[in-house]
Specification:
The protein is α/β, with parallel strands linked by helices. The chain has two domains: about 150 residues, Aspartate Aminotransferase, domain 1, CATH 3.90.1150; about 230 residues, Aspartate Aminotransferase, domain 2, CATH 3.40.640. About 40% of the residues lie in helices and about 15% in strands. The chain is built from 13 helices and 13 strands. The strands form three sheets. Strands 1-9-8-5-4-2-3 form a seven-stranded mixed sheet, sandwiched between helices. The chain has a three-stranded antiparallel sheet with strand order 7-6-11, with no helix packed on it. Strand 6 and strand 7 form a beta hairpin. The chain is globular. The structure holds pyridoxal-5'-phosphate (PLP). Pyridoxal-5'-phosphate (PLP) binds next to helix 4.
Length: about 400
């Protein structure tokens, strides 16, 4: 916790930037990215070279990314949404086939299952890590479960090996153990059991959207896997599906994005180190603030702090949490976000599709969760200001 004189001092340095809970650029760009773009354009200006098709540096980026994650293969695509669709399409879901998806996180995984004719089964989340709860997954497994689709929570790895064990103990009668697919859109560069996210499980999908831990000029995505057949399929269907006799469309990443991706990947660990340093400082400054629950990092995970995900205690839930967020925005000048509402909230089609399923932990989290701005380039003074503002606003409210 901060002492009163530290709070007063910190509040006298109001940030010059308007920080948002999910900043619009999640990484930093330097001269290296600009040089990579210019070089790539120059090389592509030759009519015998051009920008296509899967030309270098796209395969170089794929190889570098696979090796960063410790996976055998990687396929670069135009964003994480198509990466999810490609992996789900590979499963060839039939009516009634079920996929277990966390009820609290982001909508993309559930929409893909729904859009490809599968049945979304919500798995509730654990109240401490906010990850898809393995105990609830066990309860939801059925002879129709084709996949378990955890969404890594805001930079923190989900316990992938636990889902794999559950899948192996409850194999599908025709297809065998359910495939474990990780949505790591918000967790690129995070760690799990001494390795990187992107190795454990059957497949992992990543986003390089502008807000993510590393970005490829605003959009971009990747699929990692050790399954050669999935990799072959993914490479084929991202460009109309030739060779594997499957439907595909154009989901290619451009050479310029891949060139930037290589540079961003080389900086990713330093971005995450920056996030972690700020988060650890923040953990110290906000320790023991009454009413506040700070992010939790299990011993076998390396949190990349894509978001700094807090919760308020029960007595602050709902309107009082909202009032806190409004005070921080209107009076102190920075915006926290509720980045993980129940996935079916404001999604009529998903709510109807999953009617009758209940997710008590997710429903409670909707009233308690809030994410405080964090960014690798955030100055220490801004970090201190944000902590001092939270302490001041909470003690006043
Ligand atoms: C968890 C999660 N999955 C998938 C996506 C989709 O990523 P993209 O914008 O690259 O398609 C996002 C984007 O915010 C996300 O947060």
């Amino acid at each position: 916790m901060m002492l009163q004189h530290e709070i007063t001092e910190a509040l006298s340095h109001r940030p010059t930037k308007y920080w948002r809970g999910e900043p619009l650029l999640g990484s930093s760009y330097g001269q290296e990215e600009i040089d990579a773009v210019v070089q790539c354009i120059r090389e592509s200006m030759d009519p015998t070279v051009g920008f296509g098709f899967s030309a270098p540096p796209i395969p170089d980026f794929e190889q570098a990314f696979a090796s960063y994650c410790g996976a055998k293969y990687a396929t670069a695509v135009n964003s994480c949404g198509p990466a999810i669709d490609i992996v789900i399409r590979y499963l060839n879901l039939q009516p009634g086939d079920e996929v277990i998806v966390p009820s609290c996180n982001y909508v993309a995984s559930a929409l893909s299952v729904f859009g490809h004719g599968g049945q979304v089964i919500w798995g509730d989340v654990r109240p401490d890590t906010l990850q898809l709860d393995p105990e609830d997954v066990k309860r939801k497994m059925s002879p129709r479960t084709r996949a378990i689709f955890p969404v890594h929570m805001n930079g923190l790895s989900a316990p992938i090996d636990e889902y794999v064990a559950i899948a192996e103990a409850n194999p599908h009668p025709v297809h065998g153990p359910a495939k474990v697919i990780g949505d790591a859109a918000r967790a690129c560069g995070g760690g799990y059991k001494g390795g990187k996210i992107g190795k454990a499980g059957w497949a992992t999908v990543f986003s390089f959207h502008t807000m993510k831990n590393m970005t490829t000029l605003g959009e971009g995505g990747m699929i990692t896997t050790d399954d050669e057949d999935l990799d072959k399929y993914a490479h084929s269907v991202r460009m109309y599906g030739g060779g594997v006799n499957a439907w595909g469309t154009s989901n290619v990443m451009t050479k310029v994005q891949a060139a930037v991706g290589l540079v961003q990947l080389s900086k990713l660990d330093s971005f995450i180190a920056g996030r972690r340093r700020l988060a650890h400082e923040r953990n110290r400054m906000l320790a023991d603030v009454p009413g506040l629950i700070l992010p939790f990092e299990p011993a076998d995970c390396y949190h990349s702090y894509y978001l700094y995900t807090c919760r308020v205690k029960d007595e602050w839930a709902g309107a009082k949490r909202d009032e806190l967020m409004a005070t921080l925005d209107n009076e102190f000048g920075f915006r926290c976000v509720i980045a993980n509402p129940p996935v079916y909230a404001n999604r009529k089609q998903l709510a109807e599709h999953t009617r009758g399923q209940s997710n008590p932990v997710t429903e409670h989290l909707a009233k308690t969760i809030f994410c405080v701005p964090i960014h690798p380039a955030m100055p220490d003074a801004d970090n201190k200001y944000i902590c001092a503002a939270i302490i001041t606003a909470m003690s006043r409210l």
